[in-house]
Design a protein that fits this description.
Number of helices of chain A: 22
Order of helices and strands of chain A: HHHHHHHHHHHEHEHEHHEHEHHHHEHEH
Radius of gyration of chain B: 22 Å
Structural class of chain B: mainly alpha
Largest interface: A-B, 82 and 69 residues
Radius of gyration of chain A: 23 Å
Oligomer: heterodimer
Number of strands of chain B: 0
Shape of chain A: globular
Mean pLDDT of chain A: 93
Helix content of chain A: 40-55%
Strand content of chain A: under 5%
Distance between the termini of chain A: 37 Å
Shape of chain B: globular
CATH topology of chain B: Fumarate Reductase Cytochrome B subunit
Number of domains of chain B: 1
CATH superfamily of chain B: Transmembrane di-heme cytochromes, Chain C
């Protein structure tokens, strides 16, 4: 999200004891080498292995200040080997997923060709099973009898600096998109392993700069982009003027409005990044047209939750707590989440657990909030659920022809597709956004079914990897999605790829040109809604 | 040798049962603090049971993933199940009519099992990606299972052993009596490999068998907005206003 707008330092912070990613420090930062997109494959054949193809992909190590601001040791601690192994033991006792997944893999190979980063790079360590094995090998060494007795036989390894370097490199080449978990016969989810690895690395003082910087900003300022309240207010006033000028309708974009019915929590990129802001404009128009009072919050001015990316329960909870507090303070009846993939996974699947945003609680902490929220609505709701409900009730009018210059397709974002739901039935998360698009635009084409719905490919920038030093990885990881897009661009003339994720939008804006597409091809579902919606003043 | 095999099987049985009970206890005890079903996921527990049934009986996810691995893996597992059922006749008297009925199928299933294993093993050599992820123990596990299948088939079709005596031996073990075991090298090898398999089961990747039932991405109901899901260790974290 911060990709286009926050400056990215050009070198790892010069802390003497901070571990340098294994490749020599003199290695060229990725953005200095020329980044080129891999060639399209004639058929989606599985690439041959290219050993160490991505060994030079070096995420910047977080500086001490950034690690400490998030509550982790500033630099690699003394005796980190033992501490990392002990932390692994702790996590094995706290997460059933990790506990079972360390044992259950049989190396069948079903996942080996499923990761977009493997497809784009050919680096064997980007095969999900190999990525898991970076940790599993250590698990076996310290926590299984055969690994203690016969390490080589079972592929067990000591926790060494080389191993740690490989972790830092390759666990920062996983976008936690869960595509592999769809195909694993035991449901092994590499995202769970990646999150555990990041949690372990953080606990010994090895953090990724981009992610920790952002988490620090959320705590200090309230959102990932570091937009302070007054700037937010200004931006929203500007939007109101723009919309009034464009449509003649006095659509409001309220901030911190006490007693509003709806609290909208949206990724901070929506406030000014392109094309994100066009969707924010769209949310406001939907609420305006339906006559629903709503507000944004300066305290919870961020739906994103990078705590999930680093697998840290406490951070994730702390970040989510801002939304609970804002909801209580403003006295809202409904909480609605804007277009953001991982935010929606956290909101849909974790908020009830973390902060009580949901229903069905029997403890005072959660009941306090749940008795305030309106039980007639799903808490939280996705903005697409809200819009689709209103469309079905006939409360929104559209001029679909306004979108006729667009031939639209929809990119399922991984966290929405495989980590959440919308509506009342399994798979609603696929149908509802498409239903909305079909309701507001005349021309819609789906991409190949091997790349949509639960089989969707990550944009290549999720999971806390949306940073410039990883651009090479991001461009290569986008290959499978770009191939599917090219197919319908060539065949159907598609010129607009709608998506409901701030990271997808930022990532595609950046990588589309590498594949010969215009960066303006990507946009939000509510951008399409915004184009077609008929507002009161025009009725 | 009678005593050696008797003790070996007592030990192997204790290790297998105690080891699996311990593992299952462990898997059950460690909480899943967050709702992480791979969606789209069933919204009811009945739906989850059905999903798990399809996964365990038909290997649904593997089928979606890779037809070759699915075909070979499913062939091997179904054949193994039949072979195991067939072998129940060595442990029961009288023999259940279903077990009696499947005897001929179980016999040919031995070939199917060996074929499936051979195919799976071939992949470990022929497919570059799978060669890369294979550890020595992956090869040995296939060798062990294939060894069991081949020695079993050999006793059926090449060098018969006195199966009546084998049955007396195992029925005796179940009553803590040690009866003579036929002194056939093929039988010794077969039984030795089976005991080894039982012993390594609780410390090897064979734990995928109990593990799949505890996989949160497959066994959780997709209802996080309707019910508050809390792990004991997380229940008190951050909940003070």
């Amino acid at each position: 999200m911060a990709d286009e707008t926050t400056p990215v330092a050009v070198a790892p912070a010069p802390t003497s004891s901070a571990p340098k990613p294994a490749a020599a420090p003199a290695a060229k930062p990725a953005e200095k080498a020329k980044v080129v997109a891999p060639a399209y494959r004639d058929y989606p054949t599985i690439p041959a292995l290219k050993f160490d193809a991505m060994v030079e992909s070096n995420p910047y190590v977080a500086a001490a200040a950034h690690n400490e601001s998030v509550g982790f040791p500033g630099t690699l601690v003394d005796g980190w080997e033992q501490k990392a192994v002990a932390k692994m033991g702790e996590l094995l006792g706290k997460y059933r997923s990790l506990r079972v997944y360390m044992d259950a893999c049989v190396h069948c190979g079903a996942c080996t060709d499923k990761c977009h980063y493997f497809i784009g790079t050919g680096d064997p360590k980007n095969m999900p099973v190999a990525r898991q094995d970076l940790m599993r090998s250590v698990y076996r060494r310290y926590y299984t009898l055969p690994g203690k007795l016969f390490p080589r036989l079972v592929g067990a390894r000591d926790m060494t600096k080389d191993v740690l370097d490989d972790w830092f490199r390759y666990y920062n080449q996983c976008s936690e998109c869960r595509r592999c978990s769809v195909f694993c016969p035991y449901g092994i989810d590499t995202a769970e392993v990646t999150m555990a690895a990041k949690e372990i690395m953080h606990s010994v003082g090895l953090g990724h700069k981009y992610v920790n910087e952002i988490i620090g900003k959320v705590h200090k300022i309230g959102n990932n982009l570091g937009l302070p309240g007054p700037a937010l207010e200004n931006t929203l006033e500007g939007l109101e003027e723009d919309v009034l000028e464009d449509t003649g309708a006095a659509v409001k974009y309220p901030l911190d409005m006490q007693g509003a019915e709806v609290l909208l929590v949206t990724p901070s990129a929506d406030f000014f990044a392109e094309p994100h802001v066009d969707s924010l404009i769209g949310y406001g128009k939907v609420f305006h047209a339906a006559g629903i009072s709503w507000t944004l919050s300066s305290k919870a001015s961020e739906a994103g939750n990078f705590g999930m990316f680093i697998g840290n329960y406490e951070q994730m909870q702390k970040i989510a707590m801002r939304v609970r507090e804002a909801a209580l303070e403003l006295g809202v009846k409904r909480i609605v989440v804007g277009e953001c993939g991982h935010a929606w996974r956290v909101a849909y699947a974790f908020w009830n657990t973390l902060t009580g945003v949901g229903a069905g609680a029997n403890d005072p902490f959660a009941i306090q909030l749940q008795k305030q929220l309106d039980p007639n609505y799903k808490q939280p709701s996705h903005i697409c659920e809200v819009t689709w409900d209103l469309i079905q009730q006939g409360r929104l009018k559209f001029n679909k022809e306004a979108n006729d210059h667009r031939i639209v397709t929809f990119h399922d974002s991984c966290n929405v597709a495989r980590g959440s739901r919308m509506g009342d039935y399994a798979g609603g998360q696929f149908d509802i956004p498409r239903n909305i698009i079909r309701a507001v635009a005349n021309k819609y084409v789906d991409m190949s079914e091997a790349t949509t719905r639960e089989k969707t490919f990550c944009c290549g920038g999720g999971g806390g990897l949306l940073t410039d030093e990883l651009l090479d990885l991001r461009v290569k990881g986008a290959l499978p999605r770009m191939e599917a897009l090219k197919e319908i661009v060539d065949r159907n003339g598609v010129n607009f790829m709608a998506t409901i994720c701030a990271i997808c939008k930022a990532q595609f804006t950046k990588v589309l040109p590498y594949y010969g597409f215009k960066m303006g091809m990507v946009g939000g579902v509510h951008q399409l809604v915004s184009t077609a919606i008929v507002l009161n003043s025009e009725q | 040798m009678n005593l050696v095999f008797a003790l070996l099987f007592y030990a192997a049985t204790v290790i297998l049962v105690a080891g699996l009970v311990f593992r299952i206890y462990e898997y059950a005890r460690v909480p899943a603090p967050l709702k992480i079903p791979t969606t789209p996921a069933p919204t009811t527990s009945g739906g989850v049971a059905f999903r798990m049934f399809r996964e365990v009986v038909f290997f649904e996810s593997l089928f979606k993933s890779n037809l070759w691995i699915w075909a070979l893996g499913w062939l091997f597992h179904v054949a193994l199940a039949l072979v195991l059922l067939r072998h129940l006749r060595y442990f029961t008297e009288p023999v259940n009519f279903i077990i009696a009925f499947i005897q001929p199928f179980g016999m040919y299933a031995g070939f199917a099992m060996a074929a499936g294993l051979a195919g799976l093993w071939a992949r470990r050599f022929l497919v570059e990606r799978i060669r890369y992820i294979s550890t020595p123990s992956d090869h040995l596990m296939l060798a062990l299972l294939l060894g069991i299948a081949i020695t079993g088939l050999a006793m059926k079709f090449l060098m018969h052993t006195d199966v009546v005596a084998v049955k007396v031996f195992f029925l005796g073990l179940m009553r803590f009596e040690i009866n003579p075991l036929p002194a056939d090298p093929g039988l010794y090898l077969h039984l030795g490999l089976v005991a080894l398999l039982m012993i390594v089961f609780p410390v090897s990747k064979l734990l995928h068998a109990p593990g799949v039932f505890f996989s949160p991405t497959r066994n959780q109901v997709d209802n996080p907005r309707e019910t508050r899901h809390l792990a004991p260790w997380a229940a008190t974290l951050g909940t003070k206003n």
